Amino acid sequence: MMGSYHTSYDSADKNYQDYILPGVSRTFALTIPQLPPPLQEVVANGYLLCRIADTIEDEPTLSIAQKKYFSNLFVTVVAGQTSAESFACALYPLLSEHTLAAERELIQNAPRILRITYSFNPRQRAALERCVRIMCDGMPRFQNTASLRGLADMEAMDQYCYFVAGVVGEMLTELFCDYSPGINRNREALRNLMVSFGQGLQMTNILKDIWDDRKRRICWLPRTVFEQAGFNLDNLEPGHYQSAFGDGLQHLIGVTHAHLRNALAYTLLIPPEEGGIRRFCLWAIGLAMLTLRKLHRRRNFSASWQVKISRRSVKTTILLTSIAANHDKVLTFLFNLASKGVPFIPLKVNSNDSKQTSMPQASPEK
Description:
Layout: H1 11-24, H2 26-31, H3 37-58, H4 64-78, H5 84-91, H6 101-108, H7 110-117, H8 122-143, H9 154-179, H10 181-184, H11 187-191, H12 194-208, H13 210-215, H14 223-228, H15 243-268, H16 275-297, H17 311-323, H18 328-338
């Protein structure tokens, strides 16, 4: 049940939200302004809430018990049951320089973000609260056991991607449906694809960040996928490429490609007249697909900058997808062109919500 903490905010809070977003996410700072104004505010707010949850989990100086405490506390803050001021005052002094300055600032100013959260309508707040609750419950399960050994198998990778990205796809879908009756008419079809959309973007990030993660002594790759290719993740070292590792990576690229095709199908279910929402989705899909193509062509990369897409490619993707935003056939052609030669591994898609890749079921709102 939602609380009723501070149901109003002033322009300074809104200005702060607009200011801090680029500091914690250049990608969302680029795509969110494409949304219709009523959606910009709630989507930006939802992302910042997720960023706060991430910051708790990523702070290396916090113990497992402290992370669990602050994650649970944050859930009650978002629900309006605990003071955002007391949460920020307790957490901010514990953050180290390992956490980005912008993220520390976000924690310090959490009350500003939460005042905006509390102003949304019941359906919007329920979507945001559910997302934060599931994320704060699921992420610690993986963060507490994260190591260079990687995840056990593909099912574990699916679950990890759900807790950090798939649940965000669920949140966005609910916000889109609340905003547009036309989108709401396709709600069930969108719900069948929304988790896959999030997983496609998250898997792209995992693959391109393999070496950055290893510097933090973390690996999110599924061990069994590489074992089946004849490679042990314990032997993974930058600059010592083995073809068996490339085979395992190729398999994951194929799975990611399939998720991104589901992301395109999701986007095409959004009515063409909602061009801003389509652009929000298309820019993310296009940039992920170009990154995936680079990964496919350079499976022996040893640093993330080697598979980073150029500014020119970013601008071209934005231009082409914006021009073609309401033309389904053209968008499909552009996607096929971008993915030419990239392996594709079909997914089993169930008709039930959140089950298409063995995702855990969330409890329905009461």
